[in-house]
Amino acid sequence: MKQLLAFIRKEFHHVFRDKRTLLILFGLPVVQILLFGFALSSEVKNIGIAVLDNAQDNNSRQLTDRLQTNSYFLVKPAIHSYPEIEERFKKGEIKCALVFPADFSADMERSGKAQVQVIADASDPNTATIAVNYISGMVNSYLQQTRPAPHLNYQILPQLRLLYNEEQNGSLNFVPGVIALIFMIVCTALTSVSVVREKEMGTMEVLLVSPFSPIMVLVAKAIPYLVLSIINFILIILLSVYLLDVQVRGNFLLLFGESVLFIITCLALGLLISNLTNSQQTAMLISMMGMMLPTLLFTGFLFPIENMPIPLQVISRIVPSRYYYIIIKAVMLKGLDFSYIWKETLVLACMSVGLLGIALAKFKTRLS
Amino acid sequence: MPAVSLQHISKTYNKGTVKAVNSVSFDVNKGELFGLIGPDGAGKTTIFRILTTVLLPDQGEATVEGLDVVKDFKTIRRKVGYMPGKFSLYQDLTVSENLTFFATIFKTSIKENYDLIKDIYDQIKPFSDRPAGKLSGGMKQKLALCCALIHKPDVLFLDEPTTGVDAVSRKEFWEMLQRLKQQGISILVSTPYMDEASLCDRIALIQNGNILSVDTPQNIISNFPAPLYAAKAKNFYQLLKDFRSDPAVESCYAFGEYLHLTFKDAGNCDQLMQQLRDKYQPAEFEYKKTVPTIEDSFIRLMQQTIP
Amino acid sequence: MSNKAIICQDLTKQFGAFKAVDHISFEVEQGEIFGFLGANGAGKTTAMRMLCGLSFPTSGKATVAGFDVYHQQEKIKANIGYMSQKFSLYENLTVTENIEFYGGVYGLSRTEIKKRGGDMIDMLGLSQSAKKLVGELPLGWKQKLSFSVAIFHRPKIVFLDEPTGGVDPLTRRQFWDLIYSAAADGITVFVTTHYMDEAEYCNRISIMVDGRVEALDTPTQLKHSFQAQTMDEVFYQLARRAQRTAD
């Protein structure tokens, strides 16, 4: 026991004296969370729009005012002629234009049917669709508010309700995915490198010629990174809650427990990689590059797994982060309890035990 | 029972294509300071790794303190101290952190065996808070030796401890080994430097995985079969070329400032030497009969084994 | 211009208050084999860097191959060769490819490279292995090849850093044969080492202690004036006076 403690203490010394390790351990997660949370959000905000108001009447002005107060749009100086629209599009100043015909109000008064033209830049189809939908929604609600006239034809307006993410907060989609990605890469890379470094430095040779058992080496290597990863987890959750407005709906202890399980899976994977490689470079390459792509592809937060071809879906089943992503979404976003995620938990637990078992079996008590 | 014993140990790498060690046999007696002398790539490190149980031999048997290196590897690992050729301590840990770590790993403490390492540790004590990576070569070796000694091993394995260390530190290091020997520890040490051979009780000369000779340094020197002459002249290179091409000369090679030569006819060497002088008439010529060194013996043994 | 290969006068290199090289003065004759000795940290490497045109001195004068170390560094580099203890050829190129590469680096013409390269391979007895990867050659061969490549562009001076550490005694002799032959052709050989047995092969030896040249003479004379049996003892007597702790 005393031996193990001495070993763990040594590992902490290594971590705290190596700025690069610290940077990967704490810098990378923070940067990723912020990057995915803010910059790479899938929401569309501040769409450049300009108005060509041929009507210049009360209704058209009120609608333009509404545009101005809407955070989805950034209203640019008004357009004065039709040809100017294309010019402004070409300059990249606007993504969307709204045209009121000259007899806008008159038509509305007369028949209750008026037309507006919405022109959108479809080279970015996603933004264009969203902009068109926002504007039609806005015009509809304006009509309902200003003339709640039931004498018109019955209109059926679909009322969409988005569950779990009513505010359409894009961070919600990303945070669980990023957490999974971070653990998968950081834990795996750091543990694998830390074992391989001993091989490279020749210290492994001295450790082998000592009464210290292989299991102890693995345990002693894993424990510091487990502790640090847990701190990391708490840090990420705090960032998510206070900076990105992503609330933890479910039981925090359940979330914590599941995360520790996932961290252990990743550490086991890292230890296995370290036993199979002999240089820090290879270990880093496998755990960084080799893990990054499958994790991004098969976790499910960038590309829905259901839409993938069957062979890829099968491959995704061996990626641990896929299960963790389901668990964390269920607990964090939907507030579900353990009965909904026991299967995924079981899979992760089996993976951990399996990986640790192989790592231990592959640990060489001799050189080469 | 010898401290270390090897019988016909062989080891190949890369699926048998590279022969590292070829049927090597020798014994290290208890309390002996035994030197394994040979150039880089001779197979010294492979022998050390087999004896410290981190490498399995392909053939042959070896024991350390009577224990088999394959079957009883766990017991051996508790009884030996090992200093690999490459500096193998944690560079980012301080001197005292390294020492404490290795003491704990070996289930002991610095206090328990302090008398054994006191001599050496006192020299590095002023730097005990310095990271090991920032020590000079000599200091690193001393620290590594302390770490290898901390659990009071019965046998000490030192693989090229003086490589890359300057002359002063080398001398100090060998003095330390002499003191450790007096404490009853059996020591197997390897070195590529022939001049360190005379500091050992017995030596094995090794080249290309083959043992050339095992004996005391004195015996190896006195077994040198022919009278050896040293000569020099103003134009050294010309002298070397002339003598080497002369039919009377058996071997001729540079040795520091002098060249060393032996004659095919060992009977009347002095006369032959004078004949050479008269024949080539080198300027500022001088010669003398000289005592062979381990290096001379090594060269001779190498020439005999290489066809 | 004189026929001295290297002239140093009060050459000094200072890092802050620390004098790594402290007013060293010496001269090396053309075709001489000059041993440059010192313990780790004595200032050998710093001095050699200045002489190779890799760093500027703080003060003092020095010329290498007749060129000034302050203003003609590029000319110095074109007129020297360098071989370090760490083997400096490309292991995954063949013998010929390595020669072609280094010849090209020093601006030799293709025909020149071909002719000289062929001569060199013949002289080293490597004809059978010319198409082999350098990584497959035995250590001794690599070292000899490495030296031959270092003097391939016929430099005036060649700097050798611990050239024969760890090689077997027979290979070491063959290596020194190459050095003697190069010196006989007029190439000045500047050997830095901290192994005394290697130093004894040099014509003259300088020993640096704490940034200063404390002794400079032939090995015989040094042994005589220090009343020592071996160069090791000479070095030991000098190095013991050192104040500086190497790091």
From TrEMBL, chain A:
InterPro entries: ABC-2_transporter_component (IPR051449), ABC2_TM (IPR013525), ABC2_TM_bact-type (IPR047817)
Keyword ATP-binding: no
Superkingdom of the organism of origin: Bacteria
Keywords, ordered alphabetically: Cell membrane, Membrane, Transmembrane, Transmembrane helix, Transport
Limits of the ABC transmembrane type-2 domain: 132-366
Compartments, record wording: Cell membrane
Membrane topology recorded in Swiss-Prot or TrEMBL: Multi-pass membrane protein
A GO CC annotation given for this chain: plasma membrane
Residues that span the membrane, as ranges: 21-40, 174-196, 226-244, 251-273, 285-303, 346-363
Primary subcellular site in the record, as a coarse category: membrane
Gene3D superfamilies cross-referenced by the UniProt entry: abc type-2 transporter like domain (3.40.1710.10)
Signal peptide span: none
One GO MF term: ABC-type transporter activity
Pfam family, one: ABC2_membrane_3
Keyword Nucleotide-binding found: no
Family per similarity comment: Belongs to the ABC-2 integral membrane protein family.
PANTHER family assigned to the protein according to its UniProt record, in alphabetical order: MEMBRANE COMPONENT OF ABC TRANSPORTER YHHJ-RELATED (PTHR30294), MULTIDRUG ABC TRANSPORTER PERMEASE YBHS-RELATED (PTHR30294:SF29)
Protein's name according to its UniProt entry: Putative ABC transporter permease protein
Species: Flavihumibacter petaseus NBRC 106054
Taxonomic classification: Bacteria, Pseudomonadati, Bacteroidota, Chitinophagia, Chitinophagales
TrEMBL record, chain B:
PANTHER family on file: ABC TRANSPORTER ATP-BINDING PROTEIN, ABC TRANSPORTER ATP-BINDING PROTEIN NATA
InterPro entries linked to this entry: AAA+_ATPase, ABC_transporter-like_ATP-bd, ABC_transporter-like_CS, ABC_transporter_ATP-binding, P-loop_NTPase
Molecular functions (GO terms): ATP binding; ATP hydrolysis activity
The ABC transporter domain, residue ranges: 4-233
Family note: Belongs to the ABC transporter superfamily.
One Pfam assignment: ABC_tran
Keywords: ATP-binding, Nodulation, Nucleotide-binding, Transport
Organism, as annotated: Flavihumibacter petaseus NBRC 106054
Name listed for the protein in its UniProt record: Putative ABC transporter ATP-binding protein
Parts forming coiled coils: none
Automatic annotation (TrEMBL), chain C:
UniProt cross-references to SMART domains, sorted A to Z: AAA
Pfam families listed in its UniProt record: ABC_tran (PF00005)
UniProt keyword annotation of ATP-binding present: yes
SUPFAM superfamilies from the UniProt entry: P-loop containing nucleoside triphosphate hydrolases (SSF52540)
Residue intervals of the ABC transporter domain: 6-235
PROSITE patterns: ABC_TRANSPORTER_2
Gene Ontology molecular-function annotations: ATP binding; ATP hydrolysis activity
Keyword terms, alphabetized: ATP-binding, Nucleotide-binding
Descriptive protein name: Putative ABC transporter ATP-binding protein
